[in-house]
Predict the structure.
Amino acid sequence: MTTGLDNLPEPAELHARLSERRPLDWGDPIPSKAEIAAAYGSGAAVQSLTLLARAAQVERALTDDLVASIWDDASPHQLESRLKSPQSLARKIRKMADTEFNTQPIEDVVRYTIVMPDPDDLVPGAVGAHDSLAGRGWKISGAVHSYADGSRYKGLHLFLQHLGERVEVQLHSNESIAVKTATTPMYVVERDPSQPRGRRTEARNAAIALSAQMRQPAGIDGLDSLGGVPVEVRVYGRGGRQPAGRGRGTGPSPTEQPPASQSIDNNRKSGMAR
């Protein structure tokens, strides 16, 4: 066994423990820790499984809190994707290595999505979810929305901490989650360096065009802060992440969905994080 992995659980064992109360999608078959180490390096595999083993100790309490914070007309979306898979997390860790993001904490090991019925429910639903979680001891560290002209992806993300874990909560309406689902194949093409440049540009422009048809949620343009932290506005699709409106703020970066070309993770469905 690769040095450093011996005292860490096999992904299948960790998955079985985490699935006792609620289903969890880590793909089928779930790769072994040796396979993850072979694909992404032993360091990334060790860090991935260490983070997930730690999160597993409090995941049930976090998920119970999250579900209890959702108002009556809203619902959790793809709760089976609430923890990043070990192979996806290892891939992200390797991708971040030797970049400016290498020393930053990973915000989406644990992640949730809440879906509201209508776009105009988004802001009050986000405020209500935050206030409910804050009442349970959660602390918000950042917030980002991308309801800006020219953005290929539009959503509202909160970054919180509780029980020693960093948690990303995405908030969507039925409309925005449908557009996100429709644009995911376009996003995969856009992010795939093996695709011709023209095809990647076409995919990005098609996603921007679909997102442009979405209704602007009531109150989103005036959402300057939430829970005492600035709400950052970002534009996705203009050659990368760009701040818009009020500038960068202090929140962490929303997660990006990786291209579907990674060999041991391509049997897992798209999941929640963008």
